[in-house]
Amino acid sequence: MSARESERLHASVLVAPAADRRRLRIQRQRAAAALRAEQHRADQAAARAKADAERAERKATRYLPAAGEPGPAALRTPGRFRLPRHQDTSATLAGAYPFVAEGGLGADGVFVGQDLYSGGSFVYDPWVLYARGIITAPNLVLAGIVGSGKSSLANSLYTRSLPFGRRVYVPGDPKGEHTAVANAVGGKAIVLGHGLNTRLNPLDEGHRPTGLSDREWAITVASRRRDLIGALAETVLARGLTPLEHTAIDLALTAVVAENTVPILPMVVDRILNPDETADGRLAEDGRLVGHALRRLVAGDLAGLFDGPSTVRFDPSLPMISLDLSRVTENSTLISVLMTCSSAWMESALLDPNGGQRWVIYDEAWRLMSHPALLKRMDAHWRLARHYGIANMLIFHKLSDLDNVGDAGSAMRSLANSLLANAETRIVYRQESDQLGPTAQALGLTGTEQKLLPSLGVGQGLWRIKDRAFVTQHQLHPAELALFDTSSRLTSGVK
Q1: Around 192, how many Cα atoms within 13 Å sit in the side-chain half-sphere?
Q2: pLDDT digits (tens, 9 = 90+) for 34-71
Q3: Mind telling me which Gene3D superfamilies this protein's record contains (predicted)?
């Protein structure tokens, strides 16, 4: 083979494999294009099948008519509910959306429980709020039906205040519910009742406030004693006293105090019925009705309670003092007389400007407010609360109890309403449906707040603090729950 032929054969060998590779590459590209086309057709087929299925599902689905569903479900439309945007001040929004836009009272005070709308802790302290200018009166009104938890809340408010240096006075506890609490916190519960050795002399001088001269203290004691005996006589007689009857009381009291170091009620009654010979000859006749009315306290159904020197001493340094009247027969006049005497007995300490910050608890207020003398004393204490550092707490079952105080437009009704007006903290627990109107009117509740009251659970309350509103869940420690339980007599032995 010549050299030329050898070169030609070698060139053909080099060229042939390149052509084969090109052919194979083209075949692979065509095969890949065919696979992509097949996948595309499969995807399109799947998409068409899905669209057909959705179309069939929409055709098979039944929608509400455009005018809404007929019958009980009327006014419901398939369209989406849309509201236009609205921008306003926080004060206006707080009125339109109560509880939601409320910023809270801060963290200073006594822990109460949980704010049900914000989820945060709710604290309350009337002295703190007064110092911050949120309220101008530290008095409080608490209303709730039986079993709603209002008693537990009242007990929590004053017992949790004790570590802050506050003291607690209960001038009269008709059901004895505060006795166990007083003993548990290191205080004292004075139990009054027939057959007991406990006796209080309402004419005691009592605790002497610091800073008073002898003359000022003598005038204060004389005025308090005179007012007390007049209030007792008005309560028993169920009417006001005449000027002649006031004179008979004043002269008798002056004579007894001048002759005795420790005056007691029997001495005053005896002097009213048997005045001195040097007095006006008609004085015995003028004071006859008053004398016989007061005789009931020393020789009638109150004998043994207030007719002698006191067997217990009032100690204002104790954290809590409660006068337990649960042993007294259920009689409204009797209870009012007891409350008047017991209030006067601790009043000198209560009205001490240097006595510190104190809670004064008026439980079962419906009993007290039906008697003018007690109502006047309560009103005076409430008006002077800021001066004496007192926070009064008035506990009702329902606010419509105020409508049972005197006749419409009477002075008693005005005094009862002034108690509510001078309490800028109003706490309302669950109320019956028939009480919603009077409660809303008395407190100025909105429609939303009024509808909320029947649905409140145990321990849940609507707090109205001036113009602000909160809904809270009161929380108790297990030890408090056992101590504050007021239904133990009903539930004992039940498993």
Answers
A1: 29
A2: 999 999 999 999 999 999 999 998 888 877 666 666 67
A3: P-loop containing nucleotide triphosphate hydrolases
